[in-house]
Write a structure and sequence with these properties.
This protein has a domain at about 10-55. Helix content is about 5%, strand content about 15%. It has one helix and three strands. A hairpin with a 3-residue loop joins strand 2 and strand 3.
Length: about 70
């Protein structure tokens, strides 16, 4: 789990930055350092915040049988 949260290959985005703030109804990010920016943009002040990422949804298989639920 932590490997995915701190992935070094993750693209830099203002959306995941400590200084960026997303507001409802606005597609841009409000940055404390640069002002209003796009979600895909980033600057030299970029600092990753793993809590701003939303987890991927888990895919549930449909291939269950009655034996899977018996003890």
């Amino acid at each position: 789990m932590s490997e995915k949260a701190f992935n070094k290959k993750l693209p830099r985005r203002c959306e995941y930055c400590v200084y960026g703030k997303s507001l409802p109804g606005i597609t841009e990010i409000i940055c404390r350092k640069k002002g209003i920016t796009y979600r895909d943009d980033y600057c030299r002040h970029y600092k990753y915040d793993p809590l701003k990422r939303s987890p991927e949804t888990a895919k549930i298989s449909d291939n269950y049988s009655a034996e899977d639920f018996s003890i």
